Amino acid sequence: MEVRGATVTFLGGVNEIGGNKILVEDGPDRVLFDFGPSFAPKWEDYYYNFLKPRTTSPVKDLLEFDLIPRIGGLYSKEALADSDLPYRAPEVHAIFITHAHADHAGHLDLVDPEIPVYVGEGTKTLLDAIAGSTAMKYGDHAWRTFPDRAPVKVGGIEVVPFPVDHSVPFAYGFLIRTSSGTLAYTGDIRHHGPRADDTHAFLTAAAAERPAGLLIEGTRAGPDARRNLTEQGVRSEVDRLLEHHAGLALACTYPRDVDRLTTLDAAARAVGRRLVVSARTAYLLDAIAPRWSPGTLPLPGTPDGVLVYNRKKKIFREYEKPYLEAALTSEDVRQHGAQYLLALDPYHFPELIDLRPPRGTPFIHSMSEPFSEDDVDDRVMHNWLDHFGLEFHQMHASGHASATELFEIAHTVKPSVVYPIHTEHPEAFEKLGPGVHPPRLGVAYPVAP
After folding, report:
1. Average pLDDT, the chain
2. Residue 14 class from Cβ within 10 Å (0-12 exposed, 13-18 middle, 19+ buried)?
3. What is the pLDDT of residues 152-211, one digit of tens each?
4. CA–CA distance, 253 with 346 (Å, rounded to integer)
5. Which of 213, 253, 317, 325 is the most interior residue, by most CB within 10 Å?
6. CATH no., domain 7-223+399-446
7. What is the pLDDT of residue 1?
């Protein structure tokens, strides 16, 4: 049966965490929202760590296992090399990205460069910094940046970006206005972090719109034994630990989680310590500083800012070199451990061999808990901690709303239809009533219910 009017099609993020790819069509206009890989087990059934799609034929390799949508007029000629999907001139007229996490933006390098990609001004800065300091590439595009809350027209579709609270800065939710009604898309969202007011403002605006559909992330909608600390809760627990420990303390957090880095830095300074981070973390902080309120980020090279740790490497990338002259060595940290809170990335664990932290040294794991008991990365991490006798402490505020918060969001917005995405447990939303429609992959749903 032919669907009339505007439609929304979920090309990813269905029964999986990550991988959001949402196509909104209204007459001749086609706009895609987010375009990244998922965290679903299916991805790791075929690609894991250094086993990646070939750079010479990425679309072909991903289509082989249905890991990207088979649609024309989206991919670049280069990405389509050797694929059975023929190249067509762009038939998607714009892509809007909610935030700079890989599962929302990580497949942009496959996209035809003629398709405009819309991002927040801060998001673009962060994407550039990530591309400049990691192997992540986003491709060449007609980049367009939008200011907060300013409507953007793409043909007959109007998109209004609202900043929201998430574990990475410059995250957005969207109001998507079509000829058949409005869709509210949360992106990844929470309201227990430092920018909770942004989330509340977005939800208030969404409710006032009386949306036809709410496209809501549900990362934590199902069974979830993890604690739901606030950022202040993390600070209180780190304070308590540091107050009762005299020697070196270690931490592990995401380099892009600026809120957490600020929390760890403040906790360290409160007991006369300095936070020590990798050169990459320092580079990201410097990159986004111009878009942050002056004096609120613990920038490297400032009296109250972070210090940089000098990893043992043969080759340093260009972005690292400005930080090396004043960087601390493993010997510096080992001899004066009580002065520091050292934040290591998980891939930097070999530094522990030179650091030789005393047994019982606290290790603050300020990242998400594993999704399963047989998580390989979690097992490897604990092997390292056990080998050196480190004391494990889980202290993390999730970047995602809890199940209770998600249901409150739906009650606040009051859409005609709720589409749970970015979740392995869409059935958890069924308690909200008959308006919940767990979407099916690739089905075009009418915006007007």
Report:
1. 93
2. buried
3. 999 999 999 999 999 999 999 999 999 999 999 999 999 999 999 999 999 999 999 999
4. 8
5. 213
6. 3.60.15.10
7. 44
403: nearest Cα among 378, 425, 381, 384: 425
User: What does pTM read for this prediction?
Assistant: 0.95
Number of H helices, E strands in the chain: 12, 19
Residue 66's contacts (CB-CB under 8 Å, 6 or more residues apart) are none
Q: Cα(first)–Cα(last) distance of the chain, in Å? A: 15
Would you list the DSSP string of 277-296?
Answer: E-HHHHHHHHHHGGGS-TT-
Give the separation between CA 118 and CA 40, rounded to whole angstroms. 26
Dist CA 418 CA 426 (whole Å):
10
* Burial zone of 169 (CB within 10 Å; 0-12 exposed, 13-18 middle, 19+ buried): buried
Residue 2: pLDDT over 80: no
- Could you say which DSSP state residue 378 is in? H
pLDDT above 90: residue 346: no
- What are the tens digits of pLDDT across the range 285-330? 999 999 998 889 999 999 989 999 999 888 999 999 999 999 999 9
d(CA 138, CA 250): 32
Residue 123 neighbours by CB distance under 10 Å: 25
Return d(Cα 170, Cα 162) in angstroms, integer: 10
Q: What is the 3-state secondary structure (H, E, C) of 155-201?
A: CCEEEEEEEEECCCCCEEEEEEEECCEEEEECCCCECCCCCHHHHHH
Structural domain spans, the chain: 7-223+399-446, 231-394
pLDDT at 369: 65
Q: How far apart are CA 107 and CA 94, in angstroms?
A: 15
Residue with tokens 């942004």: 198
Give the other-Cβ count within 10 Å of 390's Cβ. 19
Q: Per mean pLDDT, which range of 9-23, 35-49, 159-173, 316-330 is the poorest?
A: 35-49
How far is it, in rounded angstroms, from Cα 395 to Cα 10? 34
CA-based R_g, the chain, Å: 22
Angle between helices 196-209 and 403-413 (to 10 degrees): 40
* AA letter at 384: W
pLDDT at 111: 97
Fold of 231-394: Rossmann fold (3.40.50)
Cα–Cα distance between 263 and 163 in angstroms, integer? 21
Extract the tokens encoding 384.
């390292």
